[in-house]
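Thread amino acids onto this structure.
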């Protein structure tokens, strides 16, 4: 469970990479990080179970145990330290939960047997997905306040998933259209579900939204959607595909991209990336392996960006990681200024 540090200087800045360990099992993946550097995610434990964890500097990685059942997940954490995810209830169901000040609250479902919370905002509002009553269909939900889970519906198809929300309560994810294709969607109180389109193919997915209502996701390539410009292709790190997983309020975007290189199996190597607001796409590197992916980014603190995700190490083991990035220039307001490498 020890943390391993890696650091390097890239053309666009300085990067420190820290392994966060596991709960005793073979795999861990970080899902979210707040400004305090508190990280949540999932890890296998010594018994092979999938468990929710929180990692804090000094305390290390700790099993959250939000429910009494076997498998749990932790998908987001806000600035107050509230955490959301899903877990076995001990009664054969898997339910979304909110963990606040040490107490876990079962958020229920849309009438079906399972649900999972994927995101929450500063106010404690929650978004995710749930099976609906009487079938296997899964719909996006928004929980504006405890006890009031709202079905966000679809774009005419069967399924929808809510992946993120901002402090205004605007929710993004994907929803199936009447033709059965998944499209990125923005749900707002004033306009309801809004199809954000694609980059020309049949499918797209909205994965994150910031407080400027900027949406990122994937449609073959990573994209950025804004009210002014619509959906814009962000390109790749030289490979065929990419996906943007998160965006902060400064407009810094993180995700994963194929590169022009191949791994030992002959498959495209993938790398976590950071895209700055001036359009630079920075390869964040790995723990020594051939693959990595960035899941989330916090707001800048003292010139440093905190980014989490997972990476293969030199033995191809998958480990949760924390990147600390100080950029080489600050041409765009809100982008961190130059400075020494993070701790």
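Threaded sequence (343 positions):
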């Amino acid at each position: 469970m020890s943390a391993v540090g890696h650091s390097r200087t890239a053309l666009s800045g300085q990067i420190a990479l820290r392994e966060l360990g596991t709960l005793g099992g073979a795999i861990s993946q970080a899902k979210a990080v707040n400004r305090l550097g508190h990280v949540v995610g999932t890890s296998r434990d010594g018994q092979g179970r999938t468990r929710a964890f929180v990692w804090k500097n000094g305390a290390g990685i700790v099993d959250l145990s939000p429910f009494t059942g076997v498998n749990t997940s932790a998908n987001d954490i806000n600035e107050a330290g509230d955490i959301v995810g899903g877990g076995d209830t001990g009664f054969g169901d898997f339910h979304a939960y909110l963990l606040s000040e040490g107490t876990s609250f079962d958020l229920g479902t849309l009438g079906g047997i399972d649900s999972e919370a994927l995101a929450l905002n500063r106010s404690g509002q929650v978004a995710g997905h749930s099976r609906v009553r009487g079938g296997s269909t899964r719909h996006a939900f928004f929980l504006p306040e405890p006890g009031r889970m709202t079905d966000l519906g679809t774009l005419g198809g069967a399924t929808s998933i809510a992946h993120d929300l901002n402090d205004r309560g605007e929710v993004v994810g994907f929803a199936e259209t009447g033709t059965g294709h998944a499209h990125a969607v923005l749900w707002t109180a004033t306009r309801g579900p809004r199809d954000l389109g694609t980059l020309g193919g049949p499918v797209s997915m909205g994965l994150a939204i910031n407080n400027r209502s900027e949406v990122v996701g994937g449609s073959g390539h990573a994209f950025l959607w804004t009210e002014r410009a619509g959906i814009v292709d962000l390109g790749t790190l030289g490979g065929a595909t990419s996906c943007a997983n998160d965006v902060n309020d400064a407009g810094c975007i993180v995700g994963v991209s194929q590169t022009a290189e191949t791994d030992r199996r002959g498959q495209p190597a993938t790398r976590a990336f950071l895209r700055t607001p001036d359009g630079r796409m920075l390869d964040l590197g790995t723990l020594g392996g051939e693959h990595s992916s960035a899941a989330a980014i916090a707001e800048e603190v003292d010139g440093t960006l905190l980014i989490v995700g997972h990476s293969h190490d030199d033995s191809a083991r998958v480990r949760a990681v924390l990147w600390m990035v100080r950029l080489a220039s600050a041409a765009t307001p809100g982008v961190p200024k130059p400075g020494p490498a993070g701790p």
